[in-house]
């Protein structure tokens, strides 16, 4: 009986090992798919941001504001008096 139980234990261990390996492979595949999807979305967002920046630059050049500072970095000197005027 001990030999039969030992064979069952070995088979059970092998089955569990195969199950865990299969599960890990499925998880790795799913994580890879999600990772690829996230990277694609980030790349798409970067492209859209570049297009938006180009559109803003085109609009600014049409308006003749090529020499003015970028709207993403407002000058601090202009921002402070504005808030100061609101409180006065």
Automatic annotation (TrEMBL):
Pfam families tied to this protein: HSBP1
Biological process annotations from GO: cellular heat acclimation
Segments forming a coiled coil: none
UniProt biased composition (Basic and acidic residues): 77-88
An example molecular function term from Gene Ontology annotations: transcription corepressor activity
Superkingdom of the organism of origin: Eukaryota
Sequence segments annotated as region (Disordered): 60-88
GO cellular component: cytosol; nucleus
Family membership: Belongs to the HSBP1 family.
Protein name: Heat shock factor binding protein 1
